[in-house]
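User: My collaborator sent over this chain with a note saying "see what the structure looks like." That's all I know about it. Can you take a look?
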Amino acid sequence: MSINFQEILKELEYRVEHGIIDLTKEEQVTKLVQILRENGVSDANEMAQKARVYFSYINEEDVVKNKKTGNVYVVKKMDPSKHIKPTPKEIQKAKQANGGQLPSDKSTAPAPVKGANVFGKGTGANVFDKPSKPAAGGKQR
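Assistant: Without extra context I'll predict from the sequence alone. Here is the result:
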């Protein structure tokens, strides 16, 4: 029997929340087992657990400490020119500061600023100020 893994993965994408496969989540592994059984796979549990292990290898990330900022976060690949390995204490502190999860390198970087200021140098209008004179055809409040 031939298994079309692309079709199985498409079906799993359809069934999981937001269409993003994350086999570290137990409910997604359970859905994968269901799909495999629907496709006649007799050892569906074993195959799904193997897929979970392979998935963890693919999505492995490095925990790093930025040499300049001292921030601890995860990256796909450590860059020795920018990163060092943090201590377990530093990792724990970063997790506590971020709700139990380590931030990714994208979430710790400042948002890029694009383009010039289109509003000029003014201070802007205060919408709560009363106008000094009535607008044409209007009444002063």
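A starting point for your reply to your collaborator: The chain has five helices and three strands.
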